[in-house]
Amino acid sequence: MPYRTDRIENLLSEGVRDKVYPGAVWAVGDSGGVRATGATGVLDPDEPDVRMRPNTVFDAASLTKILAVWASIGALWEDSVLDLDVPLGTFWDEVTGHPLGAVTAHQLLTHTAGLPLRAQLKNLYGPDPAGIRCGVLHEALNRPPGEAVEYTDRAALILGYLAEHLSGQPLDQLSETRTWRPLGMNTTRFGPLPADLASRCAPTELDQDTGTHLKGTAHDFSARLLSGVCGIAGTFTVLDDLAVFLRYLLDPTTAPAAAGFGTEWAAHSLTVQTRGLQPERGLFWHPAPGTTNEQDVWVHYGFTGTGMWISPTQDRWAALLTNKLYYTRDRQPLTDVRNAFRQESFT
Asked: Average pLDDT of 118-137?
């Protein structure tokens, strides 16, 4: 199927006109590279002469769960350091004897661990990172593990802590050494961003404390509470870096060097792992809404307006980066654009 470049450009430009987002950048491709790409709109409505560009830096929000946590856990799994099906309490002293000790990494990756559904870190545990870690790792479960699929940010936060425990490295360093630098993702990093990168960053929501839109500082409150680095959110990225990452999932030989994870982890993750529970999920990835099993399209979204899709069967990937939070937290307008973008990008 040819790439419907004109239809994608018209769709995303209409989103600018409808104030779904100030601007967007996008790319679609396959294991051979980028096949079509573009940018539309402005970086900041307050500066209408500054256009959105392919090298605009975006607050990736929950794409952090894939770019940092999923990739790092995959490296530990492929190194045989982590068995996904062993209860955490059998090898992780911090959770031994606590409710989380009965949970497995597989249940965290499929959102079937029975965790509390809201983070509420500061309200529950105070502002100290050590107190938050202790509270999250010792908290009671919301329901028995394996009973239901319920998306919660806590799964990624806990897996980030687990990756740090098993590797002996902070999550930002682990992500850089095992994933981002080997793949040549040279702009991707946790925030807050230095001034030169922040100037290229798409602004997100209005910060009530400063009266200005966040730019180069993570929108996610949990990430800011934890000094910018956590499993939930906090990474910033650019379109080119996502293209490299997604190509690597389809064909690892396309990258300058191997990441810690490879085809085995990708193949394992991009299959339904929820064992009859609904909605179906892989490992952190989930089937794209409106697609069939035969189409084999997987997706992960970010709350700021980011998203990336991949289909091993079709040898195809797509990425769409917007700063929709500049205008609103209403999900529906961007949901409609995302679904239409996916339809134009995949068969």
From this structure: 96
